[in-house]
């Protein structure tokens, strides 16, 4: 800055030109213009505020909406038990979906929708709509202030007319009470299988192939794998040949695929430290369930230098050289190994299914 560009500070701290003539006007904060509080807009009365018949009509409308919610919840409960899991619903232009999923989704959605609409209609027509300003007060309220707070809550209840209109109270209670049942039912029905043996049975069981060993197929290419295709350090995501029948039938595809998912990796046989892992593999090529024993995520990250398999969900880590024992993370047991051999044509096959349950651990398991 040169001598001709010097400036001077005004008394309030604002910058002003040094000349004086035409200087910017300065103001202190106490001189700023203030706006008057415009106050609250005038209250507009609704029909239900002045006409008892209109209020009664609104009450019945709200109760009807809550009743429709109860009806939707009952449809959910009936559908949960009555609709067969194999029934399919076709959407023109969109494809097909399970009828059970469609009914459960729509009924639960309508149950929540009618509760919401009923509550909104109740607030719009019957609850007090006068704006109230509550001034802030110290956190340590006095007894008088606490009594006032209780009175505000009580007055709010009176304003909602829930005590004066028992029809609303009971219909809302019924809608909310029934709406909770689907969630209780879903939780109770998904806490885990009652029979652990069901988790051992997958499409790798020879009974699904007329008692013959089952070829390992690449996923998603769905082509068989020869031992010569598996080079040192390579990783294959594998499905059983019997999965083809499930694809053709189109039933329980995702469930069967999840239980049968396998990861195939070739190691140096000298690196494998557990004899059982060697015996159940072929020349260092081993196959393990791809489903994490923690909560069932897909284990698919392989680190060749350390021979570690990592679950991306919660970082459970399994050591392939130790028969996929857990070395880090929340998983509590090793990944089940699938025994593999080579058939006369050089293809990898599984002569038997898993000997351990696949997937997450449950309290029914001994280990």
UniProtKB/TrEMBL annotation:
InterPro entries: QcrA_N, Rieske_2Fe-2S, Rieske_2Fe-2S_sf, Rieske_Fe-S_prot. Residues 1-53 are annotated as: Disordered. GO terms for molecular function: 2 iron, 2 sulfur cluster binding; metal ion binding; monooxygenase activity; oxidoreductase activity, acting on paired donors, with incorporation or reduction of molecular oxygen. Keywords: 2Fe-2S, Cell membrane, Disulfide bond, Electron transport, Iron, Iron-sulfur, Membrane, Metal-binding, Oxidoreductase, Respiratory chain, Transmembrane, Transmembrane helix, Transport. It is found in: Cell membrane. It is a multi-pass membrane protein. It holds the Pfam family Rieske. The chain crosses the membrane at residues 62-83, 103-123, 167-185. Residues 280-349 form the Rieske domain. Its main location: membrane. The keyword Cell membrane applies. GO terms for cellular component: plasma membrane. Belongs to the Rieske iron-sulfur protein family. Iron-sulfur subunit of the cytochrome bc1 complex, an essential component of the respiratory electron transport chain required for ATP synthesis. The bc1 complex catalyzes the oxidation of menaquinol and the reduction of cytochrome c in the respiratory chain. The bc1 complex operates through a Q-cycle mechanism that couples electron transfer to generation of the proton gradient that drives ATP synthesis. This is Cytochrome bc1 complex Rieske iron-sulfur subunit.
